[in-house]
Amino acid sequence: MSLPFTVNWMASSAKTEYYSAVSPILSTEIHNVKSGRHLAAKLGILVQQHYNLASTTVTGIPMKEEQNASSSANYDVELLHPVAAHAEVFKTGVVNAEGVHITAVKEGQLYETVTLKWCTPRSSSVELQYCTSSFRITPVDVNNRPSSCLTNFLLNGRAVMLEMPRKSGSKVLSHMLASHGGEIFIHTLGTGRSILEDPPSISEGCGGRVTDYRINDFGDFMKQNRLVPHDPKQERIDPPIEMAKKKLTRLTQYWPLVFSHTTIFNNASQIGPLLQLITKETLDANDVAECRKSIFGLVTSENKGLPLNVPTISTRGKGPKREEHYRLAWNELEAFVRCHCTTAEHQSVLECLLECRKPNTDGEGGASIASVKVQLGAQSPSHSPSKKIEKSGRDEKEFSRSYDSDAKDTERNKNFDSSGDSSYKYHPAKKLKLSADILKTSGNKSLLSLWTDRLTTEHEKRFVEFAGRINGNGPVKLYPNIKCEGNGDG
């Protein structure tokens, strides 16, 4: 057969399709399909594609048998409706959350259908459901008995709740079937929290108790990053929205959500001006002087031995607790200042901080955000045993070297006394000298392991250990002298 227009051949997954554009507003397609049930399935696909429809199969509909009214059986009814009725379910991620797939391809069909279970609701709670949208529906097979029974059931003023299949747990009602004015609608129900409900408790998050969150600081942070209309007369290199994004990115490089993951923000009374001024885009001479004053104040508190307000973190086996607190504070403060070094004034504040803090003896350069999060326990709970062992070994080496550097600390105190303000001059407090052996024996060991090591050490001083109990890398020979001369016939 000759066609009055040009035909473009297009391969399809099922059959060959012939597509042609007659005009900018008209196109034609020719599909080659077998007759019978294949024709009905193909028509179903074309209808869904043309009208942007989706399929929902209601399963488990209880119906009485025609021949035996005393018994009942469960039937399935397939419905067609706009595809937007499933948008809420797929957007919230409830679908396939437990490995139960609600989308499937039924036998004899070429398209997917969403399977939902029948759930008869209480008549008093039908009008109280939180509905987000509603769409008209039509049964795929209008004339069969299950479809007609469901249609009559809904037109008589009844409602049907549809729940998603789950392996365990409570029901999740996602849709509702009801009629209004002689037309049947499918209503999309909110599976998440309603805007009319109270917000969830903040204690349900990853931070723990409500008092641990930096709620007031976060409120101030939101006020600083509000979007306001800009003056179109001012000439800018970057658009205002891009400048706001850059500022937000810079301020959120390091911003702990809870107090237990930070040290410097727990001591705002000492270094508060530095934490507020360093986040500014530009600093003047007075701002730099205030930042240097905060740094000198922290050095004063450290050398006087004043305690810091620190979170409840484990510092066992890492030297004196107060020294460890100040080490974490200096590392965190350095990483925080480095995030905002955008001008020469910011760089001068960083140089002052590096000159005033204790010498870094770990040999790893400056502090980074990742290392600070690891030290303060603010990283995700995916700690491998190898990383823990490596970290504990590095900490022991670090503290053993830090307590051998008394000469460097003395030189640092002298430089500070000669260059600092007269109001901050003082005599450094005496340090508690501990041997490296004592520090190495603690580590991240339990009380049982420490007691066992002590008993083993005392036992080795008095007796010779049996060869079979000596720790080694390979198999132990139980009777090494059994074939030696003078040991009998064995």
Describe the structure in brief.
It is built from 14 helices and 12 strands. It has 490 residues and is an alpha+beta fold.
Structure overview:
The chain is an alpha+beta fold. It is 36% helix and 16% strand. The chain contains 14 helices and twelve strands. The strands form two sheets. Strands 4, 5, 6, 7, 8, 9, 10, 11 and 12 form a nine-stranded mixed beta sheet that branches. Helix 6 packs antiparallel against helix 7 and helix 8 packs antiparallel against helix 10. It starts with 7 loop residues before the first strand and ends in a 28-residue tail after the last helix.
Itemize the secondary structure elements and their pairings.
Layout: E1 8-10, E2 17-23, E3 26-31, H1 37-51, E4 53-64, E5 72-82, H2 87-92, E6 103-105, E7 112-119, E8 131-136, E9 138-139, H3 145-155, E10 160-163, E11 173-180, E12 183-189, H4 215-224, H5 240-251, H6 268-277, H7 285-304, H8 321-338, H9 344-356, H10 369-376, H11 385-402, H12 406-419, H13 436-442, H14 447-462
Parallel strand pairs: 4-7
Antiparallel strand pairs: 1-2, 2-3, 4-5, 5-9, 6-7, 7-10, 8-12, 10-11, 11-12
